Amino acid sequence: MFALLIFAWGVSQQVPKVLKTKFSKEALAQKVTDINGKTISISKILDQNKGKIVVIDLWASWCRDCLKAMPKAKELEDKNPNVKFIFLSLDRNEEAWKKGLEKHEMTQKENYWFHVGWKNDFNNYIDLNWIPRYLIVNQKSGIAKYYAISPEDPEIQKTIDELSK
């Protein structure tokens, strides 16, 4: 119990000091696993979506805040049919991730899983310290909105609207 309190006390959702506007080579090289068990780099995912506005949703099926945010995230997705939503899971294992996709009716969405765990080049680069976390990527694969922890953050829609002009 004491260790849990120390852990909880040490973890916080602080806005990073530097709001980055592009991804590092290491972050882009990070591999994730798709629903079919194939690995793909973040760079390849972004290349496949070049020319589109992309919202990256980092989540996990064990994350209470993530699950609580899902209805509002779905509203955001429904409101923006021309935006590509990509879901990156931080579930602890593949089985939990796939069960979470089924349970939360996400199997038809573009989903990937960090098979190497939370500590990886992508998450380290984006200063991931809390989930859910949302990033908006512009049509040229640059970071347009670096830090949001709620789909209700008005800056998300504002950024999408500005990029859509």
From TrEMBL:
BP GO terms, sorted: cytochrome complex assembly
GO CC field: cell envelope
Subcellular location(s) per record: Cell envelope
Residue stretches making up the Thioredoxin domain: 21-165
Keywords of this entry: Cytochrome c-type biogenesis, Disulfide bond, Redox-active center
Name the UniProt record assigns to this protein: Thioredoxin-like family protein
Domain of life from the UniProt record: Bacteria
Origin species: Cloacibacterium normanense
Gene3D superfamilies assigned: Glutaredoxin
